[in-house]
Every structure is written in structure tokens, then in C-alpha cells.
Write a structure and sequence with these properties.
This protein has helices at residues 24-35, 48-57, 91-103, 123-128, 163-170, 195-206, 223-228, 260-265, and strands at residues 6-9, 39-43, 66-69, 74-77, 82-86, 107-111, 116-118, 136-138, 152-156, 176-182, 185-190, 213-217, 231-234, 248-249. With 267 residues, the protein is α/β, with parallel strands linked by helices. The longest helix is centred in the middle third of the chain and has 13 residues, at 91-103.
Length: 267
């Protein structure tokens, strides 16, 4: 009997090219992977509703994919239309992170089930929503007005001034993970989450041995899933920090079907 495998794909800089599209040959390789009886999971720092938008736009719905949102804090089955796992930040932690960010003049926002919750419409939100196109709700006394514990908070420093490093040093709670998803974004989420934890937990849920798991990414927040998977793939266009953690570094970048050969070789 053929053994089912699962491939976890980061979106930006990995499965998507710079135009935020899946290129034709990579899509063809995904079809071959799926037709062989294998599974895919889209694993991103993005909110669930943004991942679901990409799944629809890129015609991935027929793959019955899993959506791993908020850096592994939420695992969602597109076929069953339900959460498999969801891990939140407590409201006390939200307030502490928000106060800390405000004390050093750093933008910080969060999310609810409908979109982005932000203290203001500022340059950081305008920059962020160029790619993550979601409804925005302004909470002038943010996070006052946030009712449900969220999966993630995001700090943004467009000037790359060093404030994100300062923020990391100031957040002392063992219950929170802080990690960069690119030089301008700092992700804050439950320390029991993470993309690597999601690989292990979803594989266990599906009864797939870890040797049948594959993961591809390009940034620091992908490192844990690259290490956790049976085969970890780093994009050659990615952050060099992840190269030594990967089993494979692609020969081509995300604009030139870097993943297509990797997918086909492992069907």
C-alpha cells in the first residue's frame, strides 16, 4: 500500500513567486503530488482568512489542503471546515505586549475572526495590507475592545531601526515566542505553537510518520518546521540562517519553480 505523505509549504518567498502566484510548473508538480495520494498544508504566519483567500485564488481547494495559520497557532481542515488545533495568547499577554510595544514607539496589532485590529491606520498597516488584504478595524485604545484571545500579535518596524530586537529583549514571558518572519516583522504567539509543532501535531493527527513529512520555507519563522519535518527544504532565495537547518536547499528560487523538482522527487 502506498504511504501517504504530507508537504508543508510556506507562502511568501516559497510557494508563491514575487507576484504572489503559484507558477505553472510548480502547480503541475502539486497536481502530481496530490494525484499520488499525498496531502498538502499551507503553513504561514498569515491569519487563517488570508490563507483561505490564497487557497481559493490559486485554485488549491480541490487539494483539500490543511491551513496552518498564525505560525502554527491554528491548524484548520479545509475539507472538514473546522479547526483541528487552536492556541491563543491570553488577554493579559496581549495587554502586556501592547504596552511594551507602545513604550518604545513600535507599531503592534492583532486579529479577530474577521480581520486586523489596529490602534490606527498608519504606514505600517498600509504596508502590511499590500499583501495581506483583510478588513481593518481601528481600536483607538488598542487593545481595549479586543474581546477574544487572539492567536498572534505582530510588531512592525518599517525603518529596521533595531526596535524589534529591543522588543524581543523586553518580552520576558516563557509562555510567548517572539520570532521574525522578515526583517520588518516580529511575530508574537503562544510558545507551545510554532510551525514545527504544527508539523508534529498534524502528522500525529493524520497518522503519518514523521519520515513522511516535508516542509519548505525561506525565513526564520520557517526554521522550526524545516527542522521538524522528515525532509526540510530551504529556498535558495531565503534567509541564509535557515540553510544549515535544511536537508535540501533548492537550486532555483521561488520565481523559477524552485520547488517543482523537489516535489516530484519525493512523490
Amino acid at each position: 500500500m502506498m504511504r501517504t505523505k504530507i508537504f508543508f509549504f510556506d507562502l511568501d518567498g516559497t510557494l508563491l513567486n514575487t507576484e504572489k502566484q503559484i507558477t505553472p510548473d510548480t502547480y503541475a508538480a502539486l497536481l502530481e503530488w496530490h494525484d499520488a495520494g499525498n496531502l498538502i498544508a499551507i503553513s504561514s504566519g498569515r491569519p487563517l482568512i488570508s490563507i483561505l483567500q490564497v487557497i481559493k485564488e490559486q485554485k488549491l481547494e480541490g487539494f483539500d489542503p490543511f491551513a496552518v495559520a498564525f505560525n502554527g497557532s491554528q491548524i484548520y481542515s479545509c475539507r472538514e471546515k473546522r479547526d483541528i488545533i487552536r492556541k491563543n495568547i491570553s488577554l493579559d499577554e496581549v495587554w502586556e505586549v501592547s504596552r511594551t510595544a507602545k513604550s518604545i514607539g513600535l507599531h503592534c496589532h492583532s486579529y479577530d475572526s474577521e480581520g486586523i485590529l489596529t490602534p490606527a491606520i498608519n504606514e505600517e498597516i498600509k504596508y502590511y495590507t499590500r499583501v495581506v488584504k483583510l478588513p481593518i478595524r481601528v481600536l483607538p485604545q488598542f487593545p481595549e475592545g479586543l474581546i477574544d484571545p487572539p492567536c498572534k500579535m505582530l510588531c512592525i518596524d518599517l525603518t529596521e531601526s533595531g526596535k524589534l530586537d529591543e522588543m524581543i529583549s523586553l518580552i520576558k514571558r516563557d509562555s510567548l515566542t517572539t520570532i521574525r518572519s522578515n526583517p520588518r516583522y516580529l511575530e508574537v504567539f503562544n510558545s507551545t505553537a510554532g510551525k514545527g509543532a504544527a508539523v508534529r501535531e498534524l502528522a500525529d493527527h493524520l497518522g503519518i510518520d514523521i519520515t513522511g513529512t516535508f516542509a519548505a520555507g525561506d525565513e526564520e519563522n520557517d526554521m522550526s518546521m524545516i527542522e521538524a519535518a522528515g525532509c526540510g527544504v530551504a529556498m535558495c532565495n531565503g534567509n541564509p540562517l535557515i540553510f544549515d537547518k535544511a536537508d535540501v536547499v533548492t537550486d532555483r528560487d521561488n520565481d523559477h519553480d524552485g520547488l517543482a523538482d523537489i516535489i516530484r522527487r519525493n512523490i
